[in-house]
Amino acid sequence: MGRPRQDWCGRGLHSLNDPHNVAFRRKADGMPRRYCLPCEVAARRARPLPPLALAPTPGQLDVLQGRADGMTEEEIAERDGVTVDGVRQSIMRARRRLRVTPSLSAAVAVCLAYELITPDTSGPRPPKSAETAPYAASVLALVQGRRRPMSPKDVQRLKLLDVLYAWSEPHAVSVLWAAGTITPRDVAPLFAKRRKRQ
Fold first, then answer.
1. Are 96 and 63 in contact (CB under 8 A)?
2. pTM greater than 0.85
3. Rounded CA gap, 62 and 68, in Å?
4. Is 50 exceeded by the pLDDT of residue 68?
């Protein structure tokens, strides 16, 4: 007896019950195998990441690691014995060095892609289900610059963080990275945008 049919793709972003997301490929034994079409298209378009022109400094990476682990700017400032403005300056300088980041969440994703920081694996991982898929897709849109960060008062932001077991949007990126929902291929569009501008 084979494996049960999955309702969601391996990344938990696309419903496999939607015929627009499903395609079939014949296996060597002649049996058809279904796969997630949007993920397959994204994988084909993905290119190897270019080398970083200028990596953030160890201090900047330490701040980004703190944000990826769910710490607030105030908590990082207290930990490092600096002001909150000093933490914000460090984040801004790190984003400038990376030169591909429309948001702090994108900076965290780029650093995760280059293994400069590690994802947060300390808490539970979000399940791949109909409830989490729209929120995971929203975080992916934030990373790729297709939406702006939500304000702390936004009700949608509170729901997103609750469903994804995250404390902030940069932490949500880290949690989804640990779950395999966001991967290095999702960072590639940031570099493509940069090439078009040049």
1. no
2. no
3. 10
4. yes
